[in-house]
User: Fold this.
Amino acid sequence: MPHSGKAAVLADLRRRIAAVTVETAARANRDPGERPVLTLGDSEIAAALPGAGLARGCLHEVVVGPAGQGAALGFASLLLARLANLEGPAAPVLWCQRLDDVYERGALYGPGLAAFGLDPGQLIVARGRRDAEVLWAMEEGLRVPALAAVLGEVEALDFTPSRRLQLAAGASGVTALVLRQDGELGSTAAATRWRVAPLAGQPRTARIGDQSAEVSPRSRWHLELLRCRGGAPADWQVEWHDETGDFAVAAELQQRPNRAQAAPAFAVAS
Assistant:
């Protein structure tokens, strides 16, 4: 993209952030080190994470597992919703996409995002033709402390651009999420790497008036923590409880030991 084009896109991006942002002065002036971790709502998952949650002001990867585009999108949406809730009402979220993905899978579906707790009114959507443009938009967004989080959908992520994202996130305190395809997973500067694949939901019933009725199963996923700075790989079968917005490890896997305890150490940028 020519420099003049980037300048125009950046100016438009800043204008849209300013239009959505409400009462952000306190957030924008906050020391990035003051942000608590992002908890996921389950004690077993918390025990596997340094600080019992996801570090904010860092880069995290979400990898699409087998047949897992919807599952990974749902998991990422839940993380964004929890991040936005921590930052306060109307905290804007920047979502960056490739145009090819929009043509192939369609635009973001507001009611679907809302079902995972993410208010579509908080979204600022940026689109680029290639991974490089999406990563550029993410990096520019991460320089705006008023944002609650920045997410980008890409095909792949190499170490150098991931390090740039990590440095920008660390400087502003804004958390970055990269939603990527499950290809060659080399080293990156991300604090964590997750892989998400769908599982069949369990039937459940609910009281409706004086009677019990079968309702939609909870979203259920195979959640793998592939790499974690300061932690070890682990995996869980989890359900999302829409009543609380929390994850819960399925009972049948709660006693299973972590797999791949001897996996290679995670590469961390110096």
Confidence is low (pLDDT under 50) at residues 253-270.
